[in-house]
Amino acid sequence: MSGGKTPYSDLPPQAFWRTGVAEPGLAGLRALWSSRWALPADARFATFGSCFAQHIGRALIARGRNWLDAEPAPGRTPPEIARAFNYGIFSARTGNIYTAAQLLLLVRLAAGEDDPDLPESWAAGARVADSLRPAIEPSGFASVEEARLSRLSMVRAFRRAIAGADVFVFTLGLTEGWENAATGQPYAMCPGTAAGSFDPACHRFRDYRFGEIREALDQAVAIMRRINPGLRILLTVSPVPLTATASGRHVLVATTQSKAVLRAVAGELAASDADVDYFPSYEIIAGAPAAARFYEANLRSVTQAGVDTVMGHFFAGLRLDAPEAHAGEEGARQVSEAEAEARMAADDLVCEEQLLEAYARGRA
After folding, report:
1. Which of 92, 119, 203, 338 sits CB 3.0–4.6 Å from 158 for a disulfide?
2. Are 128 and 141 in contact (CB under 8 A)?
3. Mean pLDDT, to the nearest integer, of 234-238?
4. Separation of alpha carbons 210 and 294, rounded Å
5. 141: helix, coil or strand?
6. Is 95 in contact with 60 (CB distance < 8 Å)?
7. Are 217 and 105 in contact (CB under 8 A)?
8. What CA–CA distance (Å, rounded) separates 109 from 68?
9. pTM of the prediction?
């Protein structure tokens, strides 16, 4: 056996599987993440992405941090009504953003590079749905014009969230999506599931590849930095499996590929950009040490214990020790303690993809 020191000789315990994972066990995991930035003590966070992203916004509110609500509910709307109409779920009323293609389109709209009148409106019974946010109104909009005005409000709020944030937190959810075959407009959901009707001649399935996702994120980050040059991006990957897949693969295989690609893209982007970081929520919930104990009986929904564990690691690694930067400014929404508790008590996430579960039930 050769002697002398090697690059492994002085590594800390967390660098080795035995001392970093096997011996401490799930409850003893430490140093999973440390933010690469020293943020202001009053740093402003904007949160967007898949349904799991909602947990981060809730946790920031509960801990009294500056969570940006750039599109609050009107007036004195009761919390339960505001939530039903998707206010206070993300930092603007975007609905779930599942793919990088969706994010890029919204960023381009916010920057004025695309026309917010171009995205389609869909029929929703006798009413109208926005193809960018098909479930944003519980019963749809009264008219195409009403849907358009609501979209314009959201686009302006999304820009305010980008411009006002110190950290833009984005949870990557899916590689699979649907788009208009002629225009390339990405949809939040497959037409015909939440609203609209499916036409195989007009609607195209996409399983976005690594390069396409990386390019979309690179473009989105570049545009956001033109709006806010000091913006930091914190990426994470949702640990929630796919509800359904249109890829032709078994849903377990499709989920594994999707999460592996998203994790690889996020890691590559963070490694190449000092103002992009990655937080391992996916690894905490779906990794081997958890042994699926953080999933409900459906093996998809994340338990409250799992959410609490993720947030414990998040705040343990979050560095908020730089001087305050926003004293005397307005921007971050002041959320009352009662409202924060009410929001944390609402266990059900707003997760549009779960609408696909109805099709599985229909086969039973």
Report:
1. 92
2. yes
3. 97
4. 28
5. strand
6. no
7. no
8. 19
9. 0.91
Residue 171: what residue type?
T
The encoded tokens of residue 262 equal 């998203």
Mean pLDDT over 171-195 rounds to: 96
Burial bucket for residue 165 (CB in 10 Å: 0-12, 13-18, 19+)? buried
How far is Cα 152 from Cα 115, in angstroms, rounded to an integer?
Answer: 10
Q: In whole angstroms, give the CA distance from residue 253 to residue 245.
A: 10
Confidence check: pLDDT of 107 > 50: yes
Tell me the two tokens of residue 218. Answer: 């690179």
* Token code pair at residue 51: 């349904």
Amino acid in position 268? E
Expressed in percent and rounded to 5, the helix, strand and coil fractions of the chain are 40, 15, 45
Query: How many degrees, rounded to 5, is the angle at CA 319 between CA 314 and CA 321?
Result: 150
Contact present, 260 and 279 (Cβ < 8 Å): no
With contact defined as beta carbons under 8 Å apart, do 197 and 130 qualify? no
* Average pLDDT of the segment spanning 103-116: 97
Q: How many residues does the chain have?
A: 364
Give me the long-range contacts of 300-309 (CB less than 8 A, separation at least 24): 300/240, 300/241, 300/243, 301/240, 302/52, 302/55, 302/239, 302/240, 304/347, 306/239, 307/55, 309/284, 309/285
Residue 250 token pair: 């078994």
d(CA 301, CA 95): 19
Q: Which residue has the higher pLDDT, 25 or 2?
A: 25
